[in-house]
Specification:
By secondary structure, the chain is α+β, with helices and mostly antiparallel strands. 39% of the residues lie in helices and 13% in strands. The strands form eight sheets. Strands 2-1-5-13-14 form a five-stranded mixed sheet. A hairpin with a 5-residue loop joins strand 13 and strand 14. Helix 14 packs antiparallel against helix 22. It starts with 21 loop residues before the first helix and ends with a helix.
Length: 710
Amino acid sequence: MNKWIPPFFRRKSRVKRRLAFPHISERFLPYILKLRKWLRRSAMALAVVAVLMAGLYLYLRSQALPVSKISQTSQMIDIQGHIIDTFHAGENRRSVSLSDIHHYVVDATLAIEDRRFYDHSGFDLKGMARAVVVNVQSMSAKQGASTLTQQLARNLYLSHERTWQRKLKEAMYTAQLEMNYSKDDILGMYLNQIYYGHGSYGIEAAAMMYFDKHASELSLAESAMLAGIPKGPKYYSPYLNMKNAKDRQYIILEAMKEGGSITEEQAQTAYAEILKFQPLGADQQEGFAPYFRDYIRYLAVEQIGIDSSLLNEGGITIYTTLDQEAQAAAEESIKQIMPASSEQQAALVAIDPRTGYIKAMVGGRDYAKNQYNRVFASTRQPGSAFKPFLYMSALQSGFMSPVTRFKSEPTVFSYDEGRKSYEPHNYGDKYAEDYIDMRTAISGSDNIYAVNTIMTVGADKVIETARKLGIRSRMQPVPSLALGTFPASPFEMASAYGIFANAGLRVEPVSILRIEDRKGNVLYEAKPAEEQVITAAEAYVMTSLLESVFDDGGTAHRVAATIKRPIAGKTGTTATDAWLVGYTPELAAAVWVGYDKDRKLTVAEAHRAAPIFARFIEGTLSAVPPKYFRVPEGVVNVLIDPVSGKLAAATCPNRRLESFLAGTEPTEVCGSPVDAGNGEDHGEGQGGTSNSKPQKQRSWWNDLKRWWTD
């Protein structure tokens, strides 16, 4: 009998499935169990790796890349858009967009550096494997495996030390670059920062240095040549080893041909092309407008507030008013007139009176020896060049006009209520010993007339006028002020005279038009102030008087034949300084010559300012048609008798056309009064000019012949 088992202890037995191949299953069962265990562990490991990778990805995505220390070269641009200077802290670098780089450069760079650039995600595994095979076969590091992204990460953020820590950082930054930038962005950054030798970083700086071209203008041969340099700038520079450079160019052209970007014929033609390299250092323009460039740097940093590090490393662009043709004319004029053996100095500044643009600036004869900019020297006496401010005050006074007469003779003037006296002298102690008018006094620079004028209108009024016209130097209300005994800078003088040329409107001088950052954002833009400081009529009458300085008998008549256009100005001579400040409707300029240590000038040395001025004006404006000074409303042109200052009738023996502020013209008549006044002979009237032919020195016919005859 079977023993009874209580239900509670009964176990339901399972029917075991019969194995199809019992012996085989039993044999491999341990291995199957191990495989299942390994697969489970592998799956768990893969899951952990996936989580870690996802975490790493999210971490890298959330982390910002380090700040790049790569500097950018800043540029100074002239009025025509030409580069006149670059600023950089040892690295000549200028970034351009990828679209401004010729595709030959892109193709050549990819062919030799990273063929699979657009196919990998920063790490080229196939390239690494190929490099390992090649290097093992050659038993040397013959082929590198770094991608462009890896090179960019290393150059932007890391040193070139060979450590595992640096390698790990490079990999991390490479991944971040690929995450944050497109392939085109990475390629553009690479081409803008890679070193091409001789201080040039980036393809734009290299193209300008080697070929004086923009990166967008490079030929296939030039592109292949430049693409080979970064591998070893000292080894593959055409300036240092042309054979190595040509060999490298051939390898790159072959790689481009194999990649399909060029044909066999293009490769052969490019290799055979004879390249025209710039002389090394020719792009630096060290000798051009150095005083102006220093002035721009000073304004940008000290006045506008541009940080000096931004100027030297920030890739900013400074757009200036400099005219290279005017600057070249200024430098050449001084070079031609001043003897090479002389130690005498010279300064020249030219301003467009209509816009205030500083067109040219020469602060001395040799910048390499002395960087002091004499254009802004406020220690030189302008002499008689100051007199236009005196005579402007006289014209504005209402009781003096161009025909007001004083006697030119040795005179002692008393002032300060008779407690003091002043005895001026004419140059060479030459006096007319007769009464002369304002035009004659200006033309011949008569000092006695000038002091009589300041005693008549008051020295305080003269200072007030000079201040309105922009003279900021120290002045005192004494009789000698009329003779320019207080200093003024060439810059102040040129700007003040420009007001006469611009119908009394003062436009603040400007040399920097705008400043942009490397992305084209405007950091600064000039907005020069304008102010009508004298009337157009007053400016014209003063201009008419100053034109006589270039007439026969005038102090600048020796250079009149050089200038083939209407010109007005004034000479100034002291024992140590010589000036000519003048203007046309388009250009105002001041020229000073002298010695830095107040050495007295010889007669020959004092006569050098005028020819420098004349050569500069005509050289700068040679392509500009001559233009008359426009006669504005409020001016009356009448024929006068230069001896008596009266209106000149037809029967008057001497007649001269003279300009007056309306209401200040003479009313008395010399000769028969029937022919005087508003008659046909003198064309009197506001804003008018005379159609008659004067018979004396101020003949418009003679002026016309001088302006238009070579």
